[in-house]
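User: Can you recover a sequence for this backbone? Please restate the input before giving your answer.

Assistant: Of course. Working from this structure:
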């Protein structure tokens, strides 16, 4: 059900967001936000949709969500951070979401780098894409779904499925944007410490499938850029992590 409109979204958002584009249906809010960024969209500009026909996930995957079930939005960010630390933006988004869910008495965790989990199921995906001078931060958060397509059934959940409570997408949006604004307008150097508190991967045995092959080891920490450090000394900058028992 599409129960949002542009006025409701604008009223819910903090003034930190200078401009809003609300799209009942679009291909991908990240795609739209990148195009808008190239036209000069300001820091904090936000694109939100009720439905995406070509939602993009990490590692060339798709992001699927029935119309009106989720928060699907992208922020245009022009952070003052050292360019070498811009990879921390997506970790900051995971921190912002965990902190915001904690205020709703929902305990979340993060599978490195930025899959937000409730128990062992994924409730949110985060995709940061860059263009010169800009980062587009896309967040998909499952809110009301009670059933999932076969390919993600068993590994996905939503806020309502997990808690059994009704949760307002707009309340979550407002809080999440406030937490995010606070983190991206502050120093990048604090992100790794804030992230460690939520990271469920540190301390676990993992298998990492990176382009060059697969490594199995224990994850021990993240470095100042957000890369995952393994006990044997490997540093993983990107790739798919499987948390082993
Ligand atoms: C992942 O694979 O975990 C990341 C998924 C990111 C999905 C969100 S939904 C809003 C924004 N627009 C997109 O096309 N992708 C992101």
């Amino acid at each position: 059900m599409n129960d949002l409109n542009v006025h409701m979204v604008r009223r819910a958002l903090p003034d930190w967001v200078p401009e809003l584009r609300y799209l009942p249906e679009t291909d991908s809010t990240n795609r739209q936000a990148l195009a808008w960024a190239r036209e000069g969209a300001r820091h904090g500009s936000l694109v939100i949709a009720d439905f995406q026909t070509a939602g993009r996930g990490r590692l060339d995957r798709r992001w699927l969500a029935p119309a009106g079930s989720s928060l699907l939005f992208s922020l245009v960010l022009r952070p003052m951070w050292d360019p070498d630390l811009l990879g921390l933006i997506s970790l900051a988004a995971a921190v912002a979401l965990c902190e915001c869910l904690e205020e709703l008495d929902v305990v979340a965790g993060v599978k490195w780098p930025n899959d937000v989990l409730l128990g062992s199921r994924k409730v949110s995906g985060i995709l940061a894409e860059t263009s010169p001078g800009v980062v587009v931060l896309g967040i998909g958060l499952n809110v009301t779904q009670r059933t999932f397509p076969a390919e993600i059934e068993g590994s996905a959940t939503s806020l309502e499925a997990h808690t059994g409570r009704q949760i307002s997408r707009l309340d979550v949006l407002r809080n999440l944007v406030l937490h995010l604004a606070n983190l991206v307008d502050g120093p990048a150097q604090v992100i790794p410490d804030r992230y460690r508190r939520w990271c469920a991967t540190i301390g676990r045995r993992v298998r990492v499938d990176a382009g060059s092959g697969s490594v199995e080891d224990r994850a021990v920490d993240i470095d100042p850029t957000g890369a995952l450090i393994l006990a044997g000394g490997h540093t993983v900058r990107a790739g798919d992590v499987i948390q082993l028992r």
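That completes the design. The mean pLDDT is 95.
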